[in-house]
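Entry 12.
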Amino acid sequence: MTPKLRIDIPDLLKYEHMLRSKSYHLICSPERCTEVLNNLKPLRLQKGDAEPVVVWEPIPDDCNPAHLARCVNILDQVDVLSPNAAECAAFFNENEPTDKENCERIGSKFLQYMTKNEHSGIVLRCGSLGCLCLTQKSKKWFPAYHSDPNATDYKVIDPTGCGNSFVGAFAAAYVLGGFNFDLGCVFGTLASGLCIQLHGVPNVEKHGDDELWNGVSLEDLLNIYLKRNPSLGITNDHIIDTIRNFHY
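Predicted 3D structure (tokens):
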């Protein structure tokens, strides 16, 4: 197997577009998170870049009561905390919650520490339940894309990589939408929904001016998801307009 590759600051220096990214997904210990951010800040200041959005995902080995204090102590440095439900519960020596009530109870324990700015929050990834977005002002559930086994396009094959796919898409859309959690959670859900449909990465192909992901255009995926979940109160036009009107 190909050995794991840990991306570090020297790697970002080789590729200026990576150094100037508007968001970063960090999966690491709290100490390493702080180290990366401290080293990154002066390099970005030299380029005149704004502070990036940071989504932090603690590594599983740190998700236990013994390391809880270490982890919450750095939450004022990150914009979004995004563990999965099992990891979040493990901080309190609990089993993975399988219902929304307990997901909300566990996730809300971290809210008081999310003080970096007014846009800070928690996005808890809860498997088949979808994802839970928690901020100081709101609480909102976003159903998983493949939440109905009776749907004609229901296809759950392999969850490998779904978490990373979710967070990467979330971070990009969150920034494009002007720190918009709704936008981030919708696109994170679409990305993980594509990833779970097959072994390996999703298939992408050009079809005229469109890109087809596993044979479906992004616009169609978005339409399908939003029509299935009208309670979200989000329209396709609203999402497109939000992205077009935002200037970073």
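Annotation: The longest strand covers residues 23-28. The chain has two domains: 1-142, 144-248.
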